[in-house]
UniProtKB/TrEMBL annotation:
One of the protein's GO biological processes: mitotic spindle assembly checkpoint signaling
Originating species: Ostreococcus mediterraneus
UniProt domain HORMA: residue ranges: 17-200
Top-level taxon of the source organism: Eukaryota
Family: Belongs to the MAD2 family.
Name the UniProt record assigns to this protein: HORMA domain-containing protein
């Protein structure tokens, strides 16, 4: 019976690598979802995928797909090296260059964990439930976020530890804050290795 007990406990153990995969995958779906919900790309450039018990829209546009794969590979590396502090998705008005919306995912990493560490005890099912709740909330937020005027472009900003070098595809950036903004805290999820807190800042209406 000892052996089966051990097999069972390791199945629930979330390692740094396992957690990194879950968080990176979440970022991929969350970014796609926001780009779809906020109309940054036309709806016909998305297809429905089944994930987290939800139907989620994922881009079919080749250039965007390539870009996101590249970004997520780097995010994965920064999560593994425990350097990622936050990922920010910025929506900018193409004409005025003004930041109109800023989606922030704050990342906390367990200080002690290394790639060799024993996993943390939390079931993937529980984590998936927490992720599902955030994704639902992102989708629902469209109902109260102000309508985005004009064409918008997006950028992804990553905040990393001082020591981590900026890869060649990334450049140093200013934080691109939204002026006169309202911030709304969204849910968070935790793998016990990483915890991710989401929020969105947006321009208040009637401020021309």
């Amino acid at each position: 019976t000892m052996a089966t007990g051990m097999a069972q406990s390791s199945k629930n153990a979330i390692t740094l690598k396992g957690s990194t995969e879950l968080v990176t995958e979440f970022f991929g779906y969350a970014v796609n979802n926001i780009l779809y919900q906020r109309g940054v790309y036309p709806p016909e450039e998305f297809e429905r995928k089944h994930k987290y018990g939800l139907g989620l829209m994922v881009t079919t546009e080749e250039k965007l797909k390539e870009y996101l794969v590249q970004v997520l590979e780097q995010i994965n590396a920064w999560l593994m090296s425990k350097d990622l502090q936050k990922l920010v998705l910025v929506l900018t008005n193409v004409q005025t260059k003004e930041t109109v919306e800023r989606w922030v995912f704050d990342v906390q990493t367990d200080a002690e964990i290394t790639a060799e560490s024993e996993g943390k005890d939390k079931s993937e099912k529980e984590i998936m439930g927490e992720i599902q709740a955030i994704i639902r909330q992102i989708t629902a937020s469209v109902t109260f976020l102000p309508l985005l005027e004009g064409e918008c472009a997006f950028e992804l900003l990553a905040y990393t530890g001082k020591e981590s070098a900026t890869p060649s595809e990334w450049e140093e950036s200013d934080p691109k804050f939204v002026r006169d903004s309202v911030e709304m805290k969204l849910r968070s999820f935790s793998t016990k290795v990483h915890s991710v807190d989401a929020s969105v800042s947006y321009k208040t209406e009637g401020d021309e």
